[in-house]
Amino acid sequence: MVKLWPKIDPHSLQVRLIAGVATVSTMALGSVVTWMSWQIQHLLVETHKQNLEVIANRFPRDVEIYSDMVSLETGIQKSIDNLTNNNTLLWVKNSAGQIVAQSQTEMMDSKGKKLTLLTQVVPQPSLQEINGNYWLLSANPLITQKKLYGQLYIAHNITSEQTMFLDLTKSLILSSLLAIGVMLGAIAWYVRKSLQPLHRISEITQSISVEKLKDAHIQLENAPSEIKQLVQTYEQMLFRLSQSWDQQQQLVSNVSHELRTPLTIVSGYLQSLLRRGDNLTPSQREAIEVATSEANRTIQLLQDLLDLERADSGRMHFYLDLVNLNNLLTEVVEMTKKYSDRLCLLELLEATIMLTVDENRLKQVLINLIDNAIKYSEPDTPITLRLLHEKEQIIIQVCDQGMGIPLQQQVRIFERFYRVDEVRSRTTGGSGLGLSIVKTFVEGMGGTVSIYSKLNQGSIFSIIFPYEIK
């Protein structure tokens, strides 16, 4: 399945931009919707409040007019009947809190009873919900003939308008949520598209190796000017790195070439001196042997540096040919017996394995690994050279029963000049380049090298080549 979206990183610039813009946009849109709802509600209520204020101001005058012709109570009732309609109810309570007159409508019987029971009604019209209906209520003092008679209560039913307002508010909220969703999608798409040049730079730089530093160029079309400036600065940095790398490689090559010849001559003179120095004292002979050993070790170090420099510069050539691995491993074991008294066991397959490799390079790889196993294991423990065939792969293993390598250091042992134990490496004469040479040679022949190790139990170095049975 193709992933349409990469894994979300909460700390990425893309997520931060989307979250920031989306938050601000949502807050702005939410504020607009809230303000519009409040304005509509305010307009709706204010319009009806004015009607209630008109009724409250007119009612005392009507009562005084009717009371000139009939009794006060009758005048109050006539005034209430005159101002009552389908949506407006009125009732009057005297100073003792008793209802003396009220609207005579069906609405008063079905809905007005609960209204008349309300005791906390303020003079200013206020909106209240009662049994699913919305009412504007106000209570005003009723003054007739310059005397306070009681309280005039006015109730105006605005349920239809309020229901329409609530429906409108819900529609606004749903529309806002839909708009926010569309906006988030648009913002995510735009931010993702705007950051594509950065992702492209990351992809290109991941593919740049040391050998390609000089030819590395980042081509971006329709990129923002800031990104183009970043690319230009980055290419300048790559160019400087390429120059530094070339200078380093040239220095290593020159130094190695210049030192290897005189050191070879020194080593030859020292060996000649040992062969012909019958009159040397034991201490003198020991000193010359140490000098010879160090000279040879330095020559080998310089040769390793030259090999790595050739591999880095692409000048190392592998002469691949079909090789009988059974015979090659047998030959390596025989060579090991000549320069070491360590027991070296050989485990071969019954079938003859023919593999296309560089015979001399593979011998050097195996000798390096065996030499490494001898140095870092006890003298009374054997070294095992094993040939395996598993799942279309040929595996050559070099096994020891030595000190092992800590797990956190196993990923670095193939780095140049890296040593697991500096003190022990010094005493054993290691330069820190042996395993790096092994990795370079094996990969140059199309294989891979890996390690499995446990502390105080030993290590297994595996050289793996693809192999198809024909």
From TrEMBL:
Catalyzed reaction equations: ATP + protein L-histidine = ADP + protein N-phospho-L-histidine
Highest taxon in the source lineage: Bacteria
First-tier enzyme category under EC: transferase
EC number: 2.7.13.3
GO cellular component labels: plasma membrane
Keyword Amino-acid biosynthesis in record: no
Residues of the Histidine kinase domain: 254-469
Residue ranges of the TM segments: 15-38, 172-191
Keywords tagged on the record: Kinase, Membrane, Phosphoprotein, Transferase, Transmembrane, Transmembrane helix, Two-component regulatory system
Domain HAMP: 192-246
Primary location group: membrane
Any Pfam family hit: HisKA
GO molecular function, one term: phosphorelay sensor kinase activity
Location in the cell: Membrane
Protein name: histidine kinase
Organism: Aphanothece hegewaldii CCALA 016
